[in-house]
Amino acid sequence: MLTEPKIRKQSLIAAIETAFGLSVRSLDFLPIGADVHSFSYDCHTNDHRRFYLKLRLVDDADSDLFSASLDIARQVEGAIHPVTNKLNDLNWLQFGSYKVILFPFVTGVAGWDITLTPPQWQQVGRTFRSLHNLVMPDPLKLILPREDFSDKWRVMASKYLKSELSVLAEDRYADEMNKLLAAKRSVISDIIDKAQELSEIVPQDQLEFVCCHGDLHSGNFLVTETGTAHPADWDNLSIAPREKDLMFIGGGVGGMLDGPNATELFRRSYGTYQVSVQALRYFRFERIVEDVVAYCEQLLGSEEGGVDRAGSLEQFSRQFGKGSVVDMAYKT
After folding, report:
1. What is the pLDDT of residue 159?
2. Residue 250 Rama label (left phi>0; alpha psi -120 to 50; beta)
3. Burial class (CB in 10 A: 0-12, 13-18, 19+), 136
4. d(Cα 311, Cα 305) in Å, to the nearest integer?
5. What's the whole-model pTM score?
6. Percent of the chain with pLDDT over 70
7. Sheet of 98-104, strand order
8. Beta-bridge mates of residue 16
9. How far apart are CA 152 and CA 34, in angstroms?
10. Which of 31, 50, 146, 207 has the highest local Cβ count within 10 Å?
């Protein structure tokens, strides 16, 4: 998020120092990211070390899933490992309503403006493959949600289109969002219908369910000056067909995973796998439906967010242009 949360920063610093055994010199908010539930900080210590700190709003009911996701991330090639909490050996610290995750600071840029070289494609392919090849014990499998092709997001998106859900915001961003929904109503309605149709014909019994990241787009890769691409944001792990992750390759989200030869370059590095086109189409359409709900909740359900609201409106409007996620879903 671009707007700093209302927290007591000195209390956060004290909690960090106790849990992670650090002496903090400075903790500065970083106005980055589009996740309304996450906030970023740059942490410097008195012994000249630097860390990236992430505050994440997590329901108590999801704490086991949150812990399991961070444990799984440690096993994925290229993932940056969180610092261990010295008080309880967990990968995070509880701070009020937030989970605090501390990582070694890695200087780099998000993958939005990167063109991958062949060696980098090799690394990205190995990252996806190492995640999908994980052999997890049964207790972990029970913690991670399993993809069930639910109509949850389709129902909510339809209600927003029909104005059946309360609109609490009355600012110009809510007005613009309503105008955009009206202009794109027929397209969004068709996308919802496509996702529903595909959910009913995807050959679930023929698909291999694996550990999936769920949000492994270009923006969730941190690319360093040396060219290493580190996968990030392990908040949406699930047991699902691997097409749930593979949909991001050439899917129109933008950045380093798109481009005219993206699919072929990725296949060379990922290895042999017979992709289900129906599953790929389903996940691309379903992701758009989920995004419709997320943007509606943010822009219509509240006036909170400050400067983030303008960015969210811009991001939503870009979903419908040439080469966008909508365009690529229909071309799949």
Report:
1. 93
2. left
3. middle
4. 10
5. 0.91
6. 99
7. 24-30, 38-45, 50-57, 98-104, 93-95
8. none
9. 22
10. 207
